Amino acid sequence: MDSRDVPAPVRRKDVAVLVPAAGMGVRLGGGTPKALRELAGEPLLVHACRRLAMAPSVAMIVIAAPPGDVDAVRALVPGAVVVPGGATRQQSVAAALAVVPESIEVVLVHDAARALTPPELVEAVAAAVRSGAAAVVPALPVVDTIKRVDAGEHVLETVDRAPLRVIQTPQGFPRATLVRAHAEAVDEHTDDAGMVERLGHKVHCVPGSDLALKITRPLDLLIAESLLAAHPLPVSRS
C-alpha cells in the first residue's frame, strides 16, 4: 500500500491533558524544579508537551507551573495554558482541572518527568476512557524479584510478581469523574487513579511503554538521553 493511501489519524480533539509541574524533584537534584531540568538541551516539560501535542485527540494542555515560573513556562510551551501550581501535586492537578471547559469530555493527568511518553500511549488511554472506563492507567509487568522484609531488613517472603504492575502516566478519566474525585478527597493523594478508586470505581489498565519511564534520579537522565537518541520524534511536515 502506498503511504499516501494510509488514512490520517482521527483528530477528535476531546482530550485535555493536565501536567502538574510545580514540584522540585529533590531526588533529581540541581536546585531547579524537576520539570525544568534539561534533557539533551531542553527542559523535560518541553519534551513531554511536544509528545502530548502530537496525539491527535489532544485539544488542550494545561500546565500547573511553579508560581514563580509561570511566565517562563508560558514562553517555553506557548501552545499550553499555564496556571500557578500548588504546594502539592494534588493541589496542582486541581488548579489545572479548574480551567478545563465542560465541553472537554476526557481528562488525562501526566507527569512531566515521563518526558518521552509516546503519543500512541496518550491515544490508547483516551480510547479506553471513551470506551467507558472510569479510570485508566498504563501498566507494565514487574520484572524484578520482589521480597517483603521486616524492620531489620530480613526477608519475610518472596512476593508473587505475576499480578503486580508498575503504573505510569498519563492516567485518564471522564472529566466529571475526576472533578468529583478531587471534590470528595479527604486527604492528599499522589495518584489520581487512586482517588477515583476510593470512589468505588474500577481502574482499567492498558499496556504501558518503556519510553514512559519516570525521570527521577540522575541515572534516569542518562537512560533517557540514550532512549531519546534511539527514538527521535518524526519531523513534522505541517
Instruction: Write the H/E string, N to C.
Output: EEEHEHEHEHEEEEEHHEH
How many strand elements? 12
Give helix % range. 25-40%
Low-confidence stretches: none
What's the main sheet like? 5 strands, mixed
Q: How much of the sequence is in beta strands?
A: 15-25%
Radius of gyration: 18 Å
Q: What is the CA–CA distance across the termini?
A: 22 Å
Strand order of the largest sheet: 5-4-1-6-11
Assign an overall shape.
globular
- SSE-based structural type: alpha/beta
Integer average pLDDT: 90
Continuous helix count: 7
Which features does this protein show?
5-stranded mixed sheet; 3-stranded mixed sheet; 29% helix; globular
Notes on the protein architecture:
The protein has 238 residues and is α/β, with parallel strands linked by helices. It is 29% helix and 22% strand. The protein is built from seven helices and twelve strands. The protein has helices at residues 44-53, 70-76, 89-97, 119-130, 175-184, 192-198, 218-230; strands spanning 15-20, 38-39, 42-43, 58-65, 81-84, 106-109, 136-141, 146-149, 155-159, 165-167, 171-174, 204-207. The strands form four sheets. The chain has a five-stranded mixed β-sheet with strand order 5-4-1-6-11, sandwiched between helices. A three-stranded mixed β-sheet has the order 10-7-12, with helices on one face. Helix 5 crosses helix 6. The longest helix is centred in the last third of the chain and has 13 residues, at 218-230. It is globular, with a radius of gyration of 18 Å. The mean pLDDT is 90.
